[in-house]
Design goal:
alpha/beta; nine-stranded mixed beta sheet; two-stranded antiparallel ribbon; 8 helices
C-alpha cells in the first residue's frame, strides 16, 4: 500500500486560537507533529492540510509539505478528504494524525499501518487499555470504546462503558482509512447518536462500516487548552521524554 499521513491543522479554535503555531520548548507544535510522523518511517509522505496561510508559512519554513483546504471543513476527516483530492499520485490509504498530538508515538503509527493492511480493512483506529483504578472513566472529554471478539469497535461513548467497574479502553483519536473508504464516509448522513455524543465515528458504525481497533500502551498528550500546553512544558523542563 502507498500510504500518506495527513495532518489537519486549523488556526481557529474556540479554546486555543492559533494552537498549531504554539511553541513547545521553542518548536512550533505543528513541526513537532510532522517530525514525529516522519520519524516513524512507515508512510510514503507527510502532508499538513490547513486553511490558514500562517500555518502554511510555518510548515514551509521548516521544509514540510502543505496543502491548502477550505475553511468550511467541519472536522479533520473532511479536511483529509479534501487534501486527498489534491494528492498525486493518489495513495491507497490515509493516516489522519491530529495537529494537536505533538507526542504521537511511532509505534502507534506502525500499528495503524498494520491494521489498514489487513484483508478487507477499510477504517482503523486505536485504544489504550486502562485499569479499573485509572482516572478518566467519568471524564466526558475522554472517549471510551468497546470492541467485539474480532477486534472491531462496536461502540464509542463519552459516558463510562462498560457500565460496571473494571478495565476499560480509552479511545486514541488517530485514524487510518483506505482512500475509497474516506471518499464514502464523508458522504454519509449524520445520525442522531453521533449528534448526541458528538463523535463522528458513530456515524460510520451506524451506517454499517467496520472499524478495526488496535491497542497501544503509549500515552497521548493532546493539547486542547493553554493549560495543557503549560503542563507539557513543565514535563519537558523536568526531563520527561515524551
Amino acid at each position: 500500500m502507498r500510504i500518506v499521513a495527513i495532518i489537519p491543522a486549523r488556526y481557529g479554535s474556540t479554546r486555543f486560537p492559533g494552537k498549531p503555531l504554539a511553541l513547545i520548548d521553542g518548536v512550533p507544535m505543528i513541526e513537532r507533529v510532522v517530525r514525529r510522523v516522519e520519524s516513524a518511517g512507515v508512510v510514503d509522505r507527510v502532508v499538513v492540510a490547513t486553511d490558514d496561510r500562517r500555518i502554511e508559512e510555518i510548515v514551509l519554513s521548516f521544509g514540510g509539505e502543505v496543502i491548502m483546504t477550505s475553511a468550511e471543513c467541519v472536522n479533520g476527516t473532511e479536511r483529509c478528504f479534501e487534501a486527498l483530492g489534491k494528492l498525486s499520485p493518489r495513495p491507497d490509504a490515509i493516516i489522519n494524525v491530529q495537529g494537536d498530538e505533538p507526542f504521537v508515538h511511532p509505534d502507534q503509527l506502525k500499528e495503524l499501518v498494520r491494521l489498514i493492511n489487513l484483508p478487507n480493512a477499510t477504517i482503523a483506529t486505536l485504544a489504550r487499555p486502562m485499569k479499573a483504578s485509572d482516572k478518566g472513566l467519568e471524564d466526558k472529554n475522554r472517549v471510551k470504546v468497546v470492541r467485539n471478539l474480532d477486534g472491531c469497535a462496536i461502540h464509542f461513548s463519552r459516558s463510562p462503558i462498560p457500565n460496571s467497574s473494571g478495565p476499560w479502553l480509552q479511545h486514541i483519536g488517530l485514524y487510518a482509512y483506505t482512500s475509497c473508504a474516506l471518499e464514502e464516509i464523508v458522504q454519509l448522513e449524520a445520525t442522531e447518536l453521533e449528534k448526541r455524543e458528538s463523535l463522528e465515528q458513530l456515524r460510520w458504525l451506524e451506517h454499517g462500516w467496520s472499524i478495526n481497533l488496535g491497542l497501544t500502551n503509549h500515552k497521548t498528550l493532546a493539547v486542547d487548552t493553554l493549560e495543557d500546553l503549560e503542563k507539557i512544558k513543565v514535563l519537558i523542563q523536568g526531563g520527561e521524554r515524551l
